Amino acid sequence: MTVGADMDKKSKNKLRKKAAAAELRKNIEPMDKVNWSDSSKNSYAYESPVRNAYIDSAYRCTKCHQVAVFSAKAQKYTYEVKKSYICQYRTLCPECYYSLKNLVNMVNGFEELWAKENESTKHTAPYIIEWLDALQQFPKYGKKANQAIINMLNNHISKNS
Asked: Which of 17, 73, 81, 92 has CB 3.0 to 4.6 Å from 97, enough for a Cys bridge?
């Protein structure tokens, strides 16, 4: 490949990136900073004259590595209706986010079952391995695993074997 062809390829990539960025900027929602959470109102972003609208924002999911878009409309809802902190950004695509939410609900269900067990039946609870597996999946989503509960469950499993 010649230097000219290489430059041409770089120019084409730059143009593609600019076109993709322009496409993202088509969807704009005005900001109504009055509706932000109190913590967001205490941030630099509240006083900043630079930010006055939400624009679609592309990001790469930390679990599946697919490109996803945090739409301007979703940002407005997240920051102004749900009152999430303004400097909070998406890290999981919608599919992985709902997967994580289901995982959290599953773990919470196991914790409720565990609270109902008495000490003599805890080490034989039929769901321990499934609970352990669920807890060990959290790091795949960029979350910390609850190592204390994992160690406790491993101890109960070893007592049973």
From this structure: 92
pTM above 0.85, yes or no: no
Report the run of H or E that residue 108 belongs to, with start and end. Answer: helix 94-116
CB 89 within 8 A of CB 61: no
Domain range list for the chain:
3-91, 95-160
Q: Which residue has the tokens 């999430």?
A: 84
CA distances from 66 to 52, 60, 63, 96, 142 (A): 28, 6, 8, 10, 15
The values of phi and psi at residue 59, to 5°, are: -150, 165
For 106, the token pair is: 């599953």
Count CB-CB contacts under 10 A for residue 11: 10
CA atoms within 13 Å, Cβ hemisphere of 15? 6
